[in-house]
Structure formats: C-alpha cells, structure tokens
Amino acid sequence: MPRSKHSPEFRARVSQEYIDGTGSVHFLADKYGIGYSTLRGWINEYRIHGISAFCHKKNRTYSKEFKIKCVEAVMNGEGSVDDIIARYGISSRSVLRQWIKVYNANRELKDYDPKQEVYMAEAGRKTTFEERKEIVNYCISHNRDYKNTAAKHGVSYSQVYS
Q1: Which of 36, 45, 48, 97 has most Cβ atoms within 10 angstroms of its Cβ?
Q2: For the CA atoms of 85, 96, 151, 130, what is the dihedral angle to 10 degrees?
C-alpha cells in the first residue's frame, strides 16, 4: 500500500506552484483537495530536500537520540514543528508531536525500528489457543513489545493484539 495517495511528482508540482506564487496555501489546498497543514508540510520539505522528500518506500527508522534532538530543537526555539520535521525528514507533524508529548510527560523515548515483515504478514499462521496464551504472556513480560513478539513467534502483528 502506498504511503500517500499523491505521487511524489504531484506533491513536488503543487509545492512548486506555491513557491512560484501561483496561489496561496489555502487556494492550492482547496484546488487540489489537500489539507492546509499537509500542504504546508509538503512545501517545507520540498524547499529543503526537493522531490526526494517524497520518495520514501518504507517506514523510517528513528533512534532515541534523534528523537530527543528533534524535540529539544523545538523546545529551544530552533524552529516550529513544521520547520523541524522538514529539516530532519520526520514523516509527519503528528510523529514529532507525539515525541514531544512523551518527552514532556518525562517518559522515555525509545528507538524505532520498523519490521516490515511483521506489518506485511498476510494472514500469519494458524495458532492453537495454548500457543496464543504463550505469545501473549511473552509479549506482556517483554514490555508489550508487539513487533518483536510477532517476529519471534512468526505471527502477524495483528495476531499479537488478538
């Protein structure tokens, strides 16, 4: 499944229209049926990274240190949330906002390492009731680490939730 319903070329073209003065964010967003903040994010990323800002084929990996660096950049006034996501190539405003929320709650920010094979598992495999109990117990005893639990037991991510 694509990460966006809009192609990288489309996002670059609309961003360039704004930069060229063809229309305001509101005009272009309304014209193309795009959210205002979404378009602002596209424009910010496009200004810094060009079309490559839109060419991600998989989930991005973020280290704990990277998350802290980005959160502290916002907290220290080095830029707005939009500026920081564009500068550091963060996937969305909501991702950075969530990091800020966790940071401000004095909770630990953790490394993020997406496991594509866990998310993309078709139907997983058949498991017995006893095996499901074992999987759930393993997951709970490992701080509810769903991705690693799914990978270790060879089941889909959603089967760990069930």
Answers
A1: 45
A2: -160
